[in-house]
User: Which sequence fits this backbone?
């Protein structure tokens, strides 16, 4: 059984006949016919009912059709993984929340590129929940995410890098700016800025408000720090962000929550996936970098 035979078989089923399958695959009809005939001879069974005027699968054909998609999909995954292993791809697919990148990732990439000039990064910016999901399904090789270790599945490896905490950020002229700490009840009537829905932060704080019996006034869901800073320049808004971004913003102060929300920012990768050599080197580089800090 050859791969091309399976591809031809799937095409016949998909296009309901040999002629349309040949046209879609840019091959001749005899090429498909011969391939299918050889496949049938190999297994001693007909795949199609040729006594019917309409396109019809035999029992053997139905059995093969139920399994051919899985075989071809696994083959494609294997081909991609082999390209990674044999260094045919010199890029690393990395996912990271945009705001986390402002105080972690940019410096890491600059330093790494000094000694790995031939490696390129394909960076996807999205929330930590989405980063972990894409690492799990193989869309990303490596992610940097802000999560709690128990929040990920067993197949996800999480390497802690930074301890951080969420603060309430307000303009220095905001009526809450002089407070040393804030409760969720203090924020009940405020116009609040949160991360987008693909983040652990968004889910956590909505759950916290619900727990207090509060329907928060969510003014904006955003990831871009410039957008958030622009809104905070108007002293009618508050944002719940990492304490690490306070020094990066103008005329903004950070206030602790009375019930703190502490998280760890770290590397995530799928232990069950085959990582490229470049991805492994990058992971090892980051681990060593933060081990020495």
Assistant:
């Amino acid at each position: 059984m050859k791969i091309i035979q399976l591809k031809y078989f799937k095409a016949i089923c998909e296009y309901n006949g040999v002629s349309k399958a040949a046209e879609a695959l840019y091959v001749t009809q005899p090429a498909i016919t011969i391939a299918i005939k050889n496949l049938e001879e190999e297994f001693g069974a007909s795949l199609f009912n040729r006594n019917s005027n309409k396109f019809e699968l035999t029992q053997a054909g139905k059995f093969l059709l139920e399994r051919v998609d899985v075989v071809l999909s696994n083959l494609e995954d294997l081909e991609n993984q082999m390209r990674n292993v044999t260094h045919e791809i010199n890029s690393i697919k990395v996912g990271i929340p945009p705001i986390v990148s402002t105080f972690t990732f940019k410096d890491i990439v600059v330093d790494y590129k000094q000694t790995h000039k031939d490696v390129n990064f394909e960076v996807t910016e999205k929330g930590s929940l989405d980063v972990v999901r894409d690492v799990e399904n193989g869309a990303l090789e490596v992610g940097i995410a802000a999560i709690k270790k128990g929040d990920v599945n067993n197949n996800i490896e999480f390497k802690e890098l930074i301890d951080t905490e969420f603060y309430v950020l307000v303009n220095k002229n905001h009526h809450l700016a002089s407070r040393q700490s804030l409760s969720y009840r203090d924020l009940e009537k405020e116009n609040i800025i949160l991360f987008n829905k693909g983040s652990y932060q968004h889910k956590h704080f909505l759950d916290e408000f619900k727990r207090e019996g509060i329907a928060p006034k969510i003014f904006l869901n955003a990831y871009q720090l410039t957008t958030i800073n622009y809104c905070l320049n108007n002293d009618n808004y508050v944002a719940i962000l990492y304490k690490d971004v306070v020094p990066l913003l103008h005329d903004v102060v950070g206030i602790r929550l009375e019930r703190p929300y502490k998280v760890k920012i770290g590397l995530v990768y799928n232990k069950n996936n085959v990582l490229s050599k470049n991805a492994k080197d990058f992971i090892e580089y980051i681990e060593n970098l933060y081990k020495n800090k």
